[in-house]
Amino acid sequence: MHVLHHAAEEPIFGMEVIEELGRHGYRLSAGTLYPILHALERRGYLRSRQERAGGRIRRVYRHHAGRTGARWLLRVCGCASLFGELVRTT
What we know:
By secondary structure, the chain is of the alpha+beta class.
């Protein structure tokens, strides 16, 4: 859920996600995160593209607009308090 939340806010890339999750107490290796990102992309929750950054090419992930609505997030997390924590409403 945390990965999808950040991908809905802005494009993300693997090491950035690992660092962000680390700030929240999660410890993930690239060997754990990248299969998760690839699975989310295969299932249509994320889309990716290659981007050049600092002379390197990296894969950047972004949410799939049809999969991040409030009802979908409620169904996935199944709990209103987690929904409120993950989604900022205006």
